[in-house]
Design goal:
The complex is a heterodimer. In chain A, helix 1 runs parallel beside helix 2. Chain A has one domain: Transcription Regulator spoIIAA (2-Layer Sandwich), CATH 3.30.750. Chain A is globular, with a radius of gyration of 13 Å. Chain A is of the alpha/beta class. Chain A has 3 helices and 6 strands, in the order E-E-H-E-E-H-E-H-E. Chain B is α+β, with helices and mostly antiparallel strands. Chain B has one domain: 2-Layer Sandwich (Heat Shock Protein 90). Helices cover about 40% and strands about 25% of the residues of chain B. Chain B contains 5 helices and 5 strands, in the order αβααββααββ. In chain B, helix 3 runs antiparallel to helix 5. Classes of the chains: A alpha/beta, B alpha+beta.
């Protein structure tokens, strides 16, 4: 399996917790998008809590899925938070400017020198 | 035997063409890999891992290796998604060359090509839904130089250059 994903509703189904275990690139992007969309609809959640502790890599295909979910949830008053990203993932999230529209955990050991472009 | 010689000629010609593009690219690579793979999405991770593995033979930080992985991932994803329009039965050609000064990565597809390169490399331009259009922005931001050569209907070659310390 390229993508393993765990989902769980929280706080009276206002939040959906999602823990993908994958490299979020074009090989897993479609499955990742479908799993989130399906679970959001099934539980009727508006807020997304993405636990990225098992995401080892992300590129623009994975970022595209995040931006797409933001565009869907934001008009409904929902929001997205991302916890426990590794350094590569954090570096790319901020390079893409997603930290301006989502709450993103900063890795404890940040060795990368720069943020954003 | 004839084929082997032809291949060698083509390889030499390509290398010389690569050399003309890269200002500091020396003629003799210290090491070079050339390979082709099916335009299947699972090969994107193999391609970036190979590039990172070769780069790791030189002095590089983990952050730099991660950036090379992203740049290769974007170039190969573009070849499959845009060049071959998602078809998984075409071939992507790749070369990785390590010279004393640079890592030079080429990614080539024989796909539809890019009509307007200026437009295609703009951040936030994406012809496809739910994509960020950041592929070329990441390539430019993470590598020292990026070259795009494309002919509509005849494919695209992206060359990524990373200067080595």
């Amino acid at each position: 399996m390229r993508l393993q994903i765990k989902v769980k509703p929280y706080l009276n189904k206002s939040w959906l917790w999602v823990r993908p275990e994958a490299e979020l690139d074009m090989a897993s992007a479609d499955a990742f998008r479908q799993a989130i969309t399906k679970a959001l609809a099934a539980y009727g959640c508006r807020n997304l809590w993405l636990d990225f502790s098992a995401v080892s890599f992300i590129d623009s295909s994975g970022l595209g899925v995040l931006l797409g979910r933001y565009r869907e949830l934001q008009p409904l008053g929902g929001s997205i938070i991302i916890t426990r990203p590794n350094e590569q993932v954090y570096h790319l999230l901020t390079a893409a400017g997603l930290h301006r529209i989502m709450e993103i955990d900063r890795p404890a050991t940040l060795k990368y020198g720069k943020e954003g472009f | 035997m004839e084929t082997v010689r032809e291949d060698a000629c083509i390889a030499t010609e390509r290398l010389q063409r690569d050399c003309r593009k890269g200002e500091q690219h020396s003629l003799d690579p210290v090491n070079k890999l050339q390979f082709r793979f099916l335009s299947r999405s699972e090969n994107v991770s193999l391609a970036r891992l190979l590039a990172a593995a070769l780069a790791a033979s030189r002095e590089m930080t983990v952050a730099e290796l991660d950036e090379i992985k992203v740049a290769v991932s974007e170039a190969v994803s573009n070849a499959i998604i845009h060049g071959y329009e998602g078809r998984d039965d075409c071939y992507v050609e790749m070369s990785l060359a390590l010279t004393p000064e640079q890592l030079v990565i080429t990614v080539h597809d024989d796909g539809v090509g890019i009509a307007d390169i200026e437009q295609a490399i703009k951040p936030s331009y994406s012809a496809k839904r739910d994509r960020m259009g950041l592929g070329f922005a990441f390539m430019h931001s993470f590598m020292d130089a990026v070259d795009v050569v494309s002919t509509p209907g005849a494919g695209t070659t992206v060359t990524l250059y990373k200067d080595l310390p």
